[in-house]
């Protein structure tokens, strides 16, 4: 059996600093060009999703990933205007790195007032899930 | 930006009955033809991963899915001999359905002594993770 065509696969990274600021980029490209978004991107053939998350975080923000914890899998067929894109989201621990924008990110920073922001894609839902699962018995 | 080529996406279903027997199929096709495996299969474009899990479970075993809980995402590039296939695994609750094989399954049954079986792909790891996360505070 050959492998049938299916959805594309991305990763998204939820990173808070010690002051509960959220690491966000400004998207350099469409869709959602100029919008705030979580760091992330497409998974390459031959890398694990965890490796993809670490790589995309580094490429877009220069931040080095520590521990990863799975938040969820986001697969609504309409969540990305380019087509059906399924994203695996991780909460990622880091240690005091200063963000610096790169790759698909026009800017990258820890943002204090992220709760009122209009984020790209379904990234508000991803962040909400990450926050609600912070408790030790989530 | 267009969507780059990436890994394929599947779902796998971990279903126990009230006697802790594990729902397994015998694979009708290669790879791992004739081996025991978890019910599952490729995610179609346009369906969520949760819908794919319910659909594959129904097609292969005739069992109707109840509640789903995410176990993990399995993405080792070498876990499937056909190519890079990432699988999203769910623990699925059901209510007393008798399995009946269909689609890619040559047989389907709740198996009592599953711990000693040689399962296809990395399905032993998936089941081990499902079992270790059964505790309420997993």
Quaternary structure: homodimer
Largest sheet of chain A: 4 strands, mixed
Q: Radius of gyration of chain A in whole Å, from Cα?
A: 14 Å
Strand order of the largest sheet of chain A: 4-1-6-5
Beta-strand segment tally of chain A: 7
Largest interface: A-B, 34 and 34 residues
**How would you spell out the order of helices and strands of chain A?**
EEEEHEEEH
What structural category arises from helix and sheet content of chain A?
A: alpha+beta
Unreliable stretches of chain A (pLDDT < 50, length at least 5) are none
Percentage of residues assigned to helices of chain A: 10-25%
The backbone outline of chain A, from C-alpha atoms, is globular
How many helices of chain A? The count is: 2
Strand content of chain A: 25-35%
Termini of chain A, distance in Å? Answer: 40 Å
Mean pLDDT of chain A: 92
